[in-house]
Amino acid sequence: MGIKKHFGKVVKIENQKMIIKFEKLLGCHACEYKEGCGITEESNVFDFDLIDGIKVGDKVKVYIEDRVVLKSALLVYVFPIIVLIFFAIIGHFIMRIFDFSEIFIPFFSLFGVIGYFIVLNKIYGKNKIDIKVEKV
Q: What is the SS3 assignment for 76?
């Protein structure tokens, strides 16, 4: 696994945040991560915690490890589907045991996914994603 990196420029500093505008690269249209990257023609400005020594106009390099991207994708996209299916199966058995209507299953599944995201927020809500920013 490697590291994905982007270059940008600090365009504003406010409230202990630095606003970075990323350069749109020529190779972006061919990049394997173009759909999930977040840097698009419409949106290429993001904020990060201010780092000492960086000021408006500085060029910076922002990078993130592939494993962090993969872990985030699994937690947000793949596991909720697994939880949804799991709760649908459990809901089916509960429906049969207690003779509930079939409408119980999707609501029970939705309850499971909402619960999953609440637990995920409790576990990772205060943790920041490991994104490195350094002055170029």
A: helix
